[in-house]
Specification:
about 140 residues; alpha+beta; six-stranded mixed β-barrel; two-stranded antiparallel ribbon; about 45% strand; globular
Length: about 140
């Protein structure tokens, strides 16, 4: 299988919630970034580096074990909550902070939560049940 990337937007989910309740008064105060993420259904979660963690102003909420592509095993900080947006779909998740990560990695749990699948023939991410919105989040 070839390498597949897809564009996702990552937002600080606390900022999104605070905007919805009026604590944050302006939508442009929601910390967010749009990235080309490496899609890997062999990875279990979302992986970000410290730069993105700091840019989004996320909290470290714990630690978890992870195995890198080179087989290195380590304990990494977990941050969140984050909102991930792909096209018209959104989900909330946490992210493993891998300081040496060159790019964002979109793993199996957020792929499943977004109801996405990898189309290896077209080398793209598509909705597992079509590309229409699954539900409406405002």
């Amino acid at each position: 299988m070839s390498i597949v990337h897809t564009e996702i937007t990552l937002k600080n989910a606390v900022d999104v919630s605070n905007f919805a309740t009026g604590i944050v008064k302006s939508k442009d105060k929601i910390r967010q970034t749009t990235v080309q993420a490496l899609v890997d259904n062999g990875a279990w979660t979302l992986v970000i580096n410290e730069v993105i963690h700091n840019q989004l102003g996320l909290q470290v909420i714990g630690t978890d074990y992870g195995t890198l592509a080179d087989g290195t095993k380590n304990t990494f900080n977990v941050s969140g909550p984050l909102e991930i947006t792909w096209n018209n779909r959104r989900t909330i998740c946490v992210a493993l902070i891998v300081p040496t990560a060159d790019e964002v990695l979109l793993g199996a749990i957020p792929l499943e939560a977004l109801d996405l699948t990898i189309n290896p023939r077209k080398e793209e991410v598509t909705g597992a049940h079509g590309d229409q919105p699954l539900h409406s989040l405002k």
